[in-house]
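Researcher: Checking consistency across runs. Here is Class I SAM-dependent methyltransferase again:
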Amino acid sequence: MFSPHGPTIRELTVQALSSVERGYDLLAPKFDHTPFRTPDAVLDAVQGELKGMGPFAHGLDLCCGTGAGTEVLRTVCRESVTGVDFSAGMLAVARARVRSDGPPHVAWVRGDARALPFGPVFDLAVSFGAFGHFLPRELPGLFTEVHSVMRPGGRFVFPVGAPPSPESPWYWALLGFDAAMRVRNALWRPPFVMYYRTFRFGDVRRELTRAGFTVEHRALTAFGHRPDGSPCCRLIVATRT
């Protein structure tokens, strides 16, 4: 799960007992050596789909972390790519690892996804692996913010994995993680919001529609299908109409 270059158990414990922002500042130098980083297979699959939709002019990587999604945007956006994150530590790593010679021009902005400091300038926005940091009650506000920074016809695109079945060890692992996180947040301040089982496909589609998006989804066939025939991973494509 972790490489020799990743964080130690002690470092992860200190991170988990910090706020989300401070925790990621601490984890940033070793984040790319943890299983929390979005796998290259997911990034490659999304990039392939985006190339079929584009090209685009201006792209936004929402909650960009160390810039893995920003690198995807660089391949499909012609003019500019902006990465936004509220962790200064993650942005520092992103600046160091992502090529900034353009086009497209690459910019980094420290900001909160729930209060984006932009006008309606983007025709593509992506996000990878960040939605567990938002409570379900925050989704309406989050999606409304994204809608407000998109041009008419702009697309908000992100992958969503199908929840594992109770027969899978991953089901119990994620259930245990979320339960432990709830206990931690009940006993310790500041809270560290990170839940794996709260970002549900039906809720996401409903709240995107309420925010003003037209929503479609596509199967990412590289990840196969479940026994009932549904895809193991979907790509959500929400368009500002």
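Researcher: Does this match what you'd expect to see?
Model: One thing to look at in this run: The radius of gyration is 17 Å.
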